[in-house]
Amino acid sequence: MQREMIIDSLRERGCRITKQRLTLIDIILENECSSCKDIFYKAVKIDNQIGTATVYRMVNVLEEIGAISRKNMYKVSYSEHCVMEDACVVVLEDDTTYHLSAKKWNSVIQAGLSICGYMTNQKIKSITIKPCECEKAEC
Question: Which of 11, 30, 55, 128 lies 20 to 30 A from 36 at CA?
Answer without folding.
Answer: 11
